[in-house]
Fold:
Amino acid sequence: MNASILNELRNIVGKDYVMSEKEDMIIYASDATMFDHWPDAVVQPASRDEVVGIVKVAAKNNIPLTGRGAGTCLSGGAIPLKGGIVVDMARMDRIRKIDAANKIAIVEPGVITFELASQAAKLGLLYPPDPSSWKESTLGGNVAECAGGPKGVKYGITRNFVLGLEVVLPDGSVIETGNAVDGEMCGPDWTASKKDNTGYLREFGRCCEYSK
Ligand SMILES: Cc1cc2nc3c(=O)[nH]c(=O)nc-3n(C[C@H](O)[C@H](O)[C@H](O)COP(=O)(O)OP(=O)(O)OC[C@H]3O[C@@H](n4cnc5c(N)ncnc54)[C@H](O)[C@@H]3O)c2cc1C
Structure:
């Protein structure tokens, strides 16, 4: 990657959070699959605005982008198959708020799944999605993979617990989906609909009963 693009990225996230040397990027070339491919650079944003800046640089220069949580996925999704920039969410790891009364959490994408479940449990709440990688995996990665786990059969999987998303689009614009209300929503439901998914789970439950 040419020096001027690397400098643009350093101006956005700080010089300590841009990697382009092979020895620094080795873990970003693979995930939990057997495949690997090297990125040209790895950046570690700390905020939504920094992600927007990175996406705009990539769009302007026609550079592929690959998001990355903990790199535990089994789909190859975190591998930068066409090179380009890996956006590592490790620094966006804050639980902004757990609203116990309304049973809603606002989190950044790099929060470790187990950390949210643990903090929720301290308030007497259950965050069920528990992929077996949950002590390492991130909520952003769980959303992208729609991760489930042992509790999924009873409680549902990640999509059943996502009420809304803040999404940076490929041109750097930002949209918000869903809202912080657990129930009927107004307008298009770009986030997976809880109602539909509860329906799906009911179907699944009935299938199980019929097969007895
Ligand atoms: C030992 C082990 C056990 C597992 N057990 C289960 C299981 O029981 N159930 C199950 O469903 N899965 C399981 N998985 C796979 C599971 O999907 C992943 O572990 C987890 O969801 C991925 O999270 P991650 O943070 O590691 O994401 P990564 O692997 O880093 O990324 C996964 C995908 O998400 C994208 N992504 C990550 N963060 C963002 C972001 N902020 N914005 C946009 N895209 C993003 C990446 O580009 C990639 O496509 C397991 C994996 C392992 C290694």
